[in-house]
Design a protein that fits this description.
Layout (H helix, E strand, L loop, with lengths): L1 E4 L5 H12 L3 E6 L7 H4 L4 E5 L16 E4 L11 H16 L6 E7 L8 H13 L5 E7 L2 E2 L4 H12 L2 E5 L5 E2 L2 E2 H10 L9 E5 L5 E2 H11 L5 E5 L4 H11 L4 H11 L10 H5 L6 H13 L32 E8 L3 H9 L11 H13 L20 E2 L2 E7 L4 E6 L5 E10 L2 E10 L1 H27 L3
Parallel strand pairs: 1-2, 1-4, 2-3, 4-5, 5-6, 6-11, 7-10, 8-13
Antiparallel strand pairs: 9-12, 14-19, 15-16, 16-17, 17-18, 18-19
Length: 473
């Protein structure tokens, strides 16, 4: 079957694409930036890629012969105060384009919306579902609650909390009930719904076998990890204070923390149906889902992460437009060293950051991360998706990978930290020389003052880093 996939670089779509390819389907993958095509599927013979921005679809060309489509566009981390209107616009434009094709079925992954007092994001998902309904194709909506899997936002946030805090003083919304569902089961539902006529023009809640509070999820997570944790909930923590608590304790952005707190106040309990029997899925329990997620982490086989999404407000355009380093009006710190073992140096470069650290003065890097958190930035806690593998679009602590090509021996990072300007960090090997370039384009007087204030640290931080990249110890 020829299938259109939206949100190709997102957490769900990346994994779904691999599953559909295993089932021998042909995929047409929509991307906003052609430089961010996932490496795992870029060279697959059954994959083609088209450039589409569903907020600006004027030049979009969807193949007429697609037979089904997945609508997987959604962002809880957007900083826009008008995100509901933006999401509705995306859905309406998608509907308009797909209605002109031979598509018979659209499958939409939404959220469980059975509570009377929905959060803004759940209301938005319901509105998107209503917008997607059409006479031109059949809509199948699968409504999920908390998704548990390596790299998912909920999993990583719970992991941060459990592994860092032996004793937790938490907001009262930890007593809210939900029905978590493993990512493997989510993918089984999405794949299994394809072409099932009995699911046409219907919506179904998909959920795990247990009803748990967030507090119970934290304690069970700790049990799987062999940790003993104590939790005290306080009613005095307001939604805003709760958002700050989540933001400072975990690797999430403040926008996502606020959205999560808003959603976590709402009970997410699914309505029973025959969807499990129709598709042939028996959802796993929460502990099993957590255990399987850690098996993937230990194998360094995490395919996608919620952190892969570019921080809202940092890039107004495509990543590829930032690949060439600017020259005019910029401050630069350029260093070079002779490389004696190219493979060793490339491996060190491709392993930088995350758990491996920055090879030199890590405490100063951590201090910079804490400062970034205080000013509302992403900080260092989000780390990296893989320990030794990088591709364009990947998060790398408070950087974003713009370009990563081992054959060209070049890695280029763009800063997503809070700065009075824009910053790039490049590593490039030319012949037997490693060039390390830090480029900063200041914004106004504050940008210039910032650069001069950090110059003294560059002398030992950047020197130590480039030395560690070329010297075997």
């Amino acid at each position: 079957m020829k299938i259109l996939i939206t949100g190709t670089t997102g957490y769900i779509a990346k994994r779904l694409a691999l599953q559909l390819l295993e089932d021998d389907h042909q995929l047409v993958c929509c991307v906003r930036d052609m430089s961010r095509i996932p490496d795992e599927i870029e060279e697959h013979p059954n994959c083609t890629f088209i450039k589409v921005d569903f907020l600006k679809p004027e030049k979009a060309q969807i193949p007429k012969d697609i037979e089904a489509a997945y609508y997987l566009i959604h962002s809880m981390a957007t900083s826009s105060s008008n995100f509901e209107a933006l999401e509705e616009t995306c859905a309406a434009n998608f509907k308009s384009l797909v209605s002109k094709t031979d598509c018979e079925q659209v499958i939409y992954l939404s959220g469980i919306v059975n509570d009377d007092s929905l959060s803004k994001h759940l209301k938005s998902r319901l509105q998107v579902e209503n917008t997607l309904q059409s006479d031109a194709y059949a809509l199948t909506t699968l409504r999920a609650g908390i998704i548990v899997g390596s790299g998912s936002a909920s999993f990583e946030i719970i992991r941060d909390i459990v592994e860092k805090l032996p004793v937790m003083v938490t907001p009262k919304w930890l007593n809210t009930k939900t029905q978590p569902l493993g990512i493997r089961d989510v993918l089984s539902f999405l794949c299994g719904a394809l072409g099932k006529t009995e699911l046409y023009n219907k919506h179904f809640d998909i959920f795990g076998p247990e009803i748990l509070t967030y507090k119970e999820m934290l304690l069970q997570f700790a049990e799987v990890r062999g940790l003993k944790r104590h939790i005290l909930t306080l009613p005095i923590l307001t939604p805003k204070l709760s958002s700050y608590w989540l933001y400072f304790v975990t690797s999430t952005s403040f926008q996502l923390a606020s959205a999560l707190v808003d959603s976590m106040k709402v009970e997410v309990i699914g309505k029973t149906s025959n969807i499990d029997a129709i598709i042939g899925v028996k959802p796993m329990d929460y502990k099993t889902a957590v255990d399987l997620a850690f098996q993937k982490i230990e194998q360094n086989a995490v395919v996608s992460s919620w952190k892969d999404a570019v921080s809202s407000g940092v890039f107004k355009d495509q990543l590829s437009k930032h690949i060439e380093l600017p020259h005019f009006g910029c401050f630069k710190d350029v260093r070079n060293r002779t490389v004696t073992d190219v493979d060793f140096t490339l491996d060190r470069i491709w392993s930088i950051g995350g758990r491996n650290g920055w090879y030199s003065f890590n405490r100063l890097w951590k201090l910079r991360g804490y400062m970034d958190k205080l000013f509302g930035g992403v900080g260092l806690r989000r780390g990296r998706t893989h320990d030794t593998y990088l591709e364009a679009g990947d998060p790398l602590d408070f950087w974003r990978v713009l370009y990563a090509d081992k054959t060209e021996k070049r890695l280029l990072l763009f800063a997503e930290m809070k700065l009075p300007g824009e910053a790039w960090l490049e590593f490039k090997i030319v012949k037997d020389k490693l060039y390390q370039r830090a480029v900063f384009r200041p914004k106004g007087v504050w940008g210039r003052l910032y650069w001069y204030s950090v110059i003294p640290f560059h002398a030992f931080v950047f020197n130590g880093m480039i030395d560690a990249l070329v010297e075997k110890k």
